[in-house]
Write a structure and sequence with these properties.
Helices cover 53% and strands 9% of the residues. With 170 residues, the chain is mainly alpha-helical.
């Protein structure tokens, strides 16, 4: 994919964007900027070596609350809850469904319906997501320690030292 992009587009760096007069950028319809959001650990372990190998400039927009695996995005928590739901037997599932109904979920034991409800929750519903994690036995702290889904501060510094642009993703 990167070879294709390099052959057919001008890949913009931060310096390119800063030095080009604003009125000239729209005149380059075949120019793009490569970006990665959220600061997942794969940005260092997988993406970084490939970008370096192909000399592709890139912008990494990291969420500072996730650095060093301090917290998990609510959607990650939802995903962990859905994993647990799909593994429940009917007896345990019916009990959990009743408990989740107190949080606003559909009252019937239907893993697909409960997953749909969880996926409908937004960032303002994070207290309900946290309560669902508790009911389902999802240990977010343990997940963050063992799986380490996000970049560390040292990895972010390394990306910047390699010449990539690092910014905040809000």
């Amino acid at each position: 994919d990167l070879r294709y992009l390099k052959q057919h587009f001008v890949l913009l760096s931060e310096l390119d964007l800063r030095s080009a007069p604003t009125h000239e950028l729209p005149k380059c319809p075949k120019s793009i900027a490569v970006t990665f959001d959220d600061g997942f650990s794969e940005c260092a372990s997988i993406v970084r070596p490939i970008l370096l190998k192909h000399a592709v400039p890139c912008f990494f927009f990291v969420t500072t609350n996730f650095l060093d695996n301090k917290t998990l995005h609510y959607r990650g928590k939802v995903s962990l809850c859905i994993d647990v739901l799909t593994a429940l037997d009917d007896h345990r599932g019916k009990s959990i469904a009743r408990d989740l109904a107190e949080l606003g979920a559909p009252p019937d034991w239907n893993p697909a319906g409960l997953a749909h409800w969880l996926l409908s929750l937004g960032h303002t519903d994070e207290p309900r997501v946290d309560a669902a994690c508790s009911l389902l036995g999802v240990d977010v702290a343990s997940f963050l320690k063992t799986r380490r889904p996000y970049l560390t501060g040292a990895e972010v510094r390394r990306l910047a030292e390699d010449g990539f642009t690092v910014g905040a993703h809000s």
